[in-house]
């Protein structure tokens, strides 16, 4: 399977086509745009309820972040219960705590119902503080967890060779193989009569009182409901101002002494490091993640891997590095995901975004919420995760800060674009955004001398793209659209490619 970057994740396996024989002109109850865990789980739930559904995927199933996650299944989150109590009140925080347990239960139910073999296992997680500041954070986390009835126990030992000051054990967490899981869900979905159309780009929708017309690269589709499970919805929406794109890095290593920690682990650094193991071709590998940063805000993304690798080698007896990959996630401004009706639309268009580092959990939970909203018109989680929620206090400072940063990126990149006199100023392997006359361009020169020249203005809302050397992609710092070296769109919210001027080989 393919992913949205040049690197290969540990989950990528053979290319498997899921497209069914589809007549797009027939009537569907619901079209789900996006073939990651959110889209596939939602489509299956709706199909199980008797709906006739179709999944539209711009590339292939698992192309986006589901193929690049580290697939921890934890019911404690990046936004802590203490923070949720402070911003949303105790009762809402209790519901928030319940949501994680519900999500893992949904995964377990699917595994049992469809007899899925996806390396799912329940295990303990350890959260550990490395310094005094982190100790305070940990205390806060444990206090918040106790208030919402979530079990965390202080321990004197952790199964990781990392010096720590304090640590807690959190029972009953889990891990799985995300691609094996969603592929099995796709098979179940098809068995139930569901349709999948891969390599089909959703372009725009028209919403009427009783139906929606979705225009795609393969024709129009008429449906009752539309779900954007595209990580962030396309078009221009208030959600683009309340969610910020981030990149996270993961690597998989073999260890010399075979002393793999069996449990899940997390420190409290900023950004934090996280650990799990995964069997790969009969051998264990340690997967470590971290080094997160805002999309487009690292001068050299290759350095993020170097830093992560050095950190892991400091603590573990690493033998070989097998995989290194990165992926994108969205940070919601008030800390909670947005799952429900798409703001600015009537009643028939839905979305799910802002999962932070808890994509497997909230992607799965979205399937229940969106199913309930579409089939019954309500969900117990609707008030908490409603994309239309207005929390003037929670997240307001961050809202202002994030959008000021987007405006700053926009202006800075427009004004300070370098001029170059000749393409020969670009060295092999280098990439640059530059101005020529009144236009700006993005140029990548391959090691063999081939130039790839694009217009550098993002078709979503006209920010300038920035180079991601680790994934050989052009990333937009404003809302996270990404493109390959030929300008082909890898991630939305844009639905368009960057304008391609040419690729050519210099003699
Ligand atoms: Fe919005 Fe590029 S993603 S301007």
Topology:
Layout: E1 28-33, H1 37-48, E2 53-56, E3 72-73, H2 81-88, H3 90-113, E4 121-129, H4 132-147, E5 153-155, E6 166-175, H5 178-191, E7 195-197, E8 202-207, E9 212-216, E10 219-228, H6 239-242, E11 243-255, E12 264-267, E13 274-280, E14 283-294, H7 301-315, E15 318-332, E16 338-341, E17 349-353, H8 359-375, H9 382-385, H10 396-415, E18 418-419, E19 431-436, E20 439-445, E21 450-455, E22 466-468, E23 473-475, E24 482-483, E25 489-491, E26 500-505
Helix pairs in contact: 1-5, 1-8, 2-3, 2-4, 3-8
The structure holds FE2/S2 (inorganic) cluster.
Annotation keywords:
single chain; 507 residues; alpha+beta; FAD/NAD(P)-binding domain; Alpha-Beta Plaits; Rieske Iron-sulfur Protein; 9-stranded mixed sheet; 8-stranded mixed sheet; 10 helices; 26% helix; binds FE2/S2 (inorganic) cluster; iron; 2 iron, 2 sulfur cluster binding
């Amino acid at each position: 399977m393919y992913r949205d970057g040049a690197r290969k994740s540990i989950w990528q396996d053979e290319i498997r086509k899921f497209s069914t024989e589809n007549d797009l002109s027939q009537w569907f109850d619901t079209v789900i745009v996006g073939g990651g865990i959110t889209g596939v789980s939602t489509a299956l739930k709706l199909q199980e309820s008797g709906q006739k559904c179709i999944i539209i995927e711009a590339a292939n199933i698992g192309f986006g972040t589901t193929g690049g996650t580290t697939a921890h299944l934890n019911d404690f989150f990046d936004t802590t219960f203490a923070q949720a109590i402070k911003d949303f009140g105790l009762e809402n925080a209790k519901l928030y705590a319940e949501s994680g347990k519900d999500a893992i239960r949904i995964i377990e139910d699917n595994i049992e119902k469809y007899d899925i073999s996806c390396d799912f296992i329940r295990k303990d997680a350890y959260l550990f503080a490395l310094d005094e500041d982190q100790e305070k954070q940990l205390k806060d986390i444990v206090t918040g967890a106790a208030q919402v009835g979530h079990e965390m126990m202080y321990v004197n030992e952790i199964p990781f060779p990392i010096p720590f000051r304090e640590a807690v054990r959190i029972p009953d967490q889990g891990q799985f193989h995300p691609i094996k899981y969603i592929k099995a869900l796709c098979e179940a979905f098809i068995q139930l009569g569901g349709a999948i159309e891969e390599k089909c780009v959703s372009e725009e929708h028209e919403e009427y009182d009783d139906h929606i017309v979705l225009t795609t690269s393969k024709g129009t589709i008429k449906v009752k409901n539309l779900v954007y499970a595209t990580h962030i919805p396309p078009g221009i929406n208030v959600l683009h101002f309340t969610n910020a794109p981030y990149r996270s890095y993961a690597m998989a290593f073999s260890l010399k002494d075979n002393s793999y920690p069996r449990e899940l682990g997390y420190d409290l650094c900023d950004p934090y490091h996280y650990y799990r193991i995964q069997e790969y071709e009969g051998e264990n590998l340690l997967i470590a993640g971290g080094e997160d940063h805002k999309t487009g805000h690292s001068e050299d993304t290759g350095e993020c891997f170097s830093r992560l690798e050095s950190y892991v080698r400091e603590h573990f007896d690493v033998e070989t590095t097998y995989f290194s990959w990165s992926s994108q996630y969205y940070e919601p401004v008030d800390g909670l995901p947005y799952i429900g009706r798409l703001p600015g639309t009537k009643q028939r268009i839905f979305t799910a975004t802002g999962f932070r580092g808890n994509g497997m959990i909230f992607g799965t939970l979205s399937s229940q919420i969106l199913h309930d909203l579409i089939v019954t018109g309500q969900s117990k989680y609707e008030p908490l995760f409603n994309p239309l929620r207005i929390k003037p206090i929670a997240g307001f400072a961050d809202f202002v800060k994030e959008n000021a940063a987007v405006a700053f990126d926009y202006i800075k990149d427009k004004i300070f674009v370098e001029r170059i006199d000749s393409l020969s100023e670009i060295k092999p392997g280098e990439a640059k955004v530059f101005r020529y006359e009144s236009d700006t361009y993005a140029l990548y020169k391959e090691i063999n001398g081939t130039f790839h020249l694009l217009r550098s203005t993002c078709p979503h809302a006209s920010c300038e793209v920035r180079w991601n050397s680790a994934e050989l992609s052009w990333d937009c710092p404003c809302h996270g659209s990404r493109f390959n070296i030929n300008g082909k769109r890898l991630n939305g919210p844009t639905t368009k490619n960057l304008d391609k001027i040419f690729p050519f080989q210099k003699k």
